[in-house]
Specification:
36% of the residues lie in helices and 24% in strands. It contains 15 helices and 18 strands. Helix 2 runs parallel beside helix 3 and helix 4 packs parallel to helix 5.
């Protein structure tokens, strides 16, 4: 059934006036009790959830706009905990090779040649279009020329943790690494009040690409402004071995000793971490982004997701950038992740579907430090919500909604997307920006890359 989005502002004066009412849907709140309402409603006012409950309790609301969720699942917007959005122009650019070769011989040189404010702006907008279409309402990012990333985020109406990329090597936006701190500080200060959907952050590339002083100073900067500190950690076996040979300790223990691990630290990948390291990450409240597709494509390894969950770590799912995934579809990655860990552990009960849905919603929100604002449909939280249409052959019949979301659904089943109470996609049409214009601009950028490709 198509969305019914219509003006409902007239009505008896004793009814509560709201901005948006979603009704007649199967509501998965993803709260602590995994409360469901079928059929249910969600009432939204001033960007936040005013009420959620059984359908019969919504008659006292009168809404400016309404979405009919008949034959639909309604759940919190999906949270992509690790990506490099602006890398969409490199989708398929350098596939089927080892990580270090891919990174140092292809990606870093390509970035130095083609990455600028313009390519970052349009590349990010293309990623946002793809993510919105796949039900992703929040993403954690790390890249360069991040002012352009923030601009794209604000214009498109999505929510993002925008991380200034930091390496102790020349980068596209900071040719002299001596200026890293100034670059990071200027970004944090300039964009702290830029938009209520933009959260400035610092992304130190990795323990091997950033020296001690860089890692420490960047953490001091993020701590001063309550911002998220992001870093790649233990992605490949060789990376960890080389690090141990040089520093005589494990990467996680090294970061612990530097004092950069706490509840506002997010580590991406964490493939080659041992039990002691998992214990350290858990003790310090660190968030983890499990990046299953990229790990598989680059043969980095299989992260111990089951052990992360057993240790009650804040775990989210990340797509990584399009250069190493190549799609930004969390529902597809949720399916991959659940199945991979079952076969890896030889246990069909590990990482059940309901846990996987939590990982791409409430757990992911917690991992990036936004669990108090998003990740579940609860009164007072920001209204980031998606509507998944069920009237399709591959989604029929329906017994368990969590199983359906992980093992049957795909990003293209997301019909409507609401971010901060604003309908940004209706009936698969993005309303906040011109998707065709974005595709055209990125095609122009890719044509230039193709013409000069070595």
């Amino acid at each position: 059934m198509l969305t019914k989005l219509q003006d409902q502002s007239s009505g008896p004066s004793n009814r509560i006036k709201i901005d948006l009412l979603i009704r007649n849907a199967w509501i998965l709140t993803l709260d602590d009790n995994r409360t469901e309402y079928n059929p249910g409603f969600v009432a939204i006012k001033d960007k936040r959830i005013l009420s959620v409950g059984e359908l019969g309790n919504c008659s006292n609301f009168v809404a400016k706009k309404e979405i009919d969720g008949t034959d639909c699942l309604v759940l919190p917007g999906l949270v992509n905990t690790h990506t490099h959005a602006a890398m969409t122009p490199f989708r398929g650019y350098a596939d089927d090779m080892k990580l270090q070769e891919w990174l140092f011989k292809h990606i870093f040189p390509a970035e130095s040649q083609y990455i600028n404010k313009n390519s970052v702006y349009w590349g990010t907008k293309l990623a946002i279009a793809e993510m919105i279409r796949n039900g992703i309402t929040t993403f954690a990012d790390g890249y360069f020329f991040v002012g352009a990333v923030a601009k794209a985020v604000k214009e498109c109406g999505i929510r993002a943790v925008v991380g200034q990329g930091i390496l102790d090597y020349p980068t596209p936006d900071t040719p002299d690494p001596k200026n890293n701190f100034t670059t990071a500080q200027n970004f944090i200060e300039s964009y702290s009040s830029f938009s209520d959907r933009v959260y400035p952050s610092i992304f130190c590339h990795s323990p091997y690409a950033c020296g001690q002083q860089t890692l420490i100073r960047m953490k001091e900067l993020t701590s001063c402004c309550n911002a998220l500190y992001q870093i790649h950690l233990s992605e490949t076996k060789n990376e960890v071995k080389e690090f141990e040979d040089k520093h005589h300790t494990r990467p996680t223990l090294y970061l612990k000793d530097l004092g950069v691990l706490d509840d506002l630290t997010l580590v991406a990948h964490a493939v080659w971490v041992n039990e002691k390291e998992i214990e350290v990450l858990s003790k310090h409240g660190v968030g983890i982004s499990h990046v299953v597709s990229s790990n598989m494509k680059l043969a980095a390894g299989v992260a111990p997701l089951g052990q992360f969950l057993d240790a009650e770590l804040k775990v989210g799912l990340g797509t990584d950038g399009c250069a190493s995934n190549n799609r930004l579809d969390l529902l597809r990655d949720a399916d991959l992740s659940a199945k991979l860990h079952k076969v890896w552990r030889g246990d069909p009960m590990v990482v059940p579907a309901v846990s996987m849905v939590e990982i791409i919603t409430r757990r992911g929100a917690q991992a990036i430090g936004l669990g108090h604002e998003i990740g579940s449909i609860e009164k007072g939280k920001v209204a980031d919500i998606i509507v998944v249409e069920l009237h399709k052959p591959h989604l029929t019949p329906l017994y368990d909604p969590y199983s359906h979301l992980v093992y049957s659904a795909k990003g293209s089943d997301v019909r409507d997307v609401v971010i901060a109470g604003e309908v940004v996609m209706r009936d698969r049409e993005i309303l906040t920006f011109d998707e065709r214009e974005v595709i055209g601009e990125v095609r122009s950028i890719s044509n230039k890359i193709r013409s000069q490709q070595i």
